[in-house]
Amino acid sequence: MADLKYYDVILKPVITEKSMNAMADKKYTFLVHPDATKSQVKEAVEKMFAGTKVASVNTMNYDGKTKRRGMTFGKTAKTKKAIVKLTAESADIEIFEGL
């Protein structure tokens, strides 16, 4: 397993209607590296976004979908999604502002 630095853990934010509604409860959703642990996700969020304190992290693993082109079968890449809940006194994450 490769040594993951905090800037390699978070790949991109998830922008969906469900994740936008969860922001009212200070829950933010990110796609993360498939080998990242909950503690690595917590460390990455606290280091990348100033003033944030993470209360909890929930992760979900998704297998790749089977795709077909003609008679050839393949699979898309597996992904991991993390829902990060911030504490009440924590600052909001700026990249989600104005969406």
From TrEMBL:
Q: Pfam families of this UniProt entry? A: Ribosomal_L23
* Keywords (A to Z) from UniProt: Ribonucleoprotein, Ribosomal protein, RNA-binding, rRNA-binding
Output one GO MF annotation.
structural constituent of ribosome
Query: Does the keyword field hold Ribonucleoprotein?
Result: yes
InterPro entries cross-referenced by the UniProt entry: Nucleotide-bd_a/b_plait_sf (IPR012677), Ribosomal_uL23-like (IPR013025), Ribosomal_uL23/eL15/eS24_sf (IPR012678), Ribosomal_uL23_CS (IPR001014)
* Gene Ontology biological process terms in this record: translation
**Could you confirm whether the keyword Cytoplasm appears in this record?**
no
What GO cellular-component annotations does this UniProt entry give? ribonucleoprotein complex; ribosome
Oligomer status and interactors: Part of the 50S ribosomal subunit. Contacts protein L29, and trigger factor when it is bound to the ribosome.
Identify the PANTHER family for this entry. Answer: 60S RIBOSOMAL PROTEIN L23A
Family to which this protein belongs: Belongs to the universal ribosomal protein uL23 family.
HAMAP family attached here? Ribosomal_uL23_B (MF_01369_B)
What does this chain do? One of the early assembly proteins it binds 23S rRNA. One of the proteins that surrounds the polypeptide exit tunnel on the outside of the ribosome. Forms the main docking site for trigger factor binding to the ribosome.
Please state what the protein is called: Large ribosomal subunit protein uL23
- From which lineage does this chain's organism come? Bacteria, Bacillati, Bacillota, Clostridia, Lachnospirales
